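[Automated response] Your request has been received and processed.

Submitted sequence:
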Amino acid sequence: MIEIERVSHRFIDRTVLRDVTVTLAEHRIGVIGANGSGKSTFARLINGLVRPSEGRVSVDGLDTRRDAGKIRRKVGFVFTDPDNQIVMPTVAEDVAFSLRRAKLPREEVRRRVTAALERFGLSDHADHPAHLLSGGQKQMLALAAVLATEPTTVVCDEPTTLLDLRNTRMVGTLLHQLPQRVVLVTHQLDLLDGYDRVLVFDDGRLVVDDRPGPAVAAYRRLMT
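Generated structure:
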């Protein structure tokens, strides 16, 4: 359960979010809005990357102000640009690096890395330089590294923005099939087909909270 209670957030002298209250319990949740609407800030609130200027954010009863470390073990975050997440020289080393805080036995780390690379079609690239992968492969590596930590929720901030159509569809299909709760921030509205709920942000406010069809229709009207 993700609870956001009367949250506002200011960045220097600009208010980015204004008095947002929402509880998230569904399996698939989409977040849409124009550039600068506050949707990415909202996503970062969920795992404590951003702390609210006012109000409270909690995940399964843990407060992001007090328990950010515990929350990040529950909530994985995937950025728009996978190069912002890839830190190790090779593909396998990058996935293993994501597990460092868990202090797992070496054999368990090896098992999780192998399983993650197989799941995302990267087994043949295990020893390849991570930054020489294609854009789609890099995004798969970013997802593999996050999911290897076995989070209960995955927050994705526009993960398909830098991808071509084929890779966008591949990432969208993968997110749709995950057993974890997914919170997807996106401009690719067709990726939200079949989602349980869609939130629409405008000028820092949550203005629509509905099923995908009505929410996307409201967003289109808002943009015109």
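Summary generated for your ticket: The chain has one domain: 2-223. The mean pLDDT is 93.
If you did not submit this request, please reply to this message.
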